[in-house]
Q: What sequence folds into this?
């Protein structure tokens, strides 16, 4: 647990003592799917946010029916931010915001190259 920020450790300790009085800190109740927690864990050890999966992330036209519209990376980034808020890890939240800004810049750049919409 040496990589966790002190504030995050305090959140976990407080939550653990409420759920499991007298027990050591447990991460099993952290409200995140394993994929999102893996993003957080990788960030703790590598200092880099890996939210894009080149082999599976694809842009699809939004049909309004899919649970995750368009690109799954948007969902991973949003869920990562919520995890960061829950864990009160400001550094992680800031990295996720940077990722969202980069993703938006990427989308805007691609849209300006789209022959159907023309230059913007």
A:
């Amino acid at each position: 647990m040496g990589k966790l920020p002190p504030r995050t450790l305090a959140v976990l300790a407080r939550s653990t003592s409420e759920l499991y009085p007298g027990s050591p800190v447990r991460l099993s109740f952290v409200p995140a799917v394993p994929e999102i927690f893996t993003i957080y864990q990788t960030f703790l050890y590598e200092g880099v946010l890996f939210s894009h999966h080149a082999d599976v992330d694809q842009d699809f036209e939004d049909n309004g029916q899919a649970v995750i519209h368009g690109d799954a990376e948007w969902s991973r980034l949003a869920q990562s931010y919520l995890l960061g808020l829950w864990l009160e890890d400001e550094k992680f939240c800031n990295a996720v915001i940077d990722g969202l800004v980069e993703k938006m810049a990427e989308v805007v750049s691609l849209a300006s190259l789209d022959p159907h919409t023309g230059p913007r």
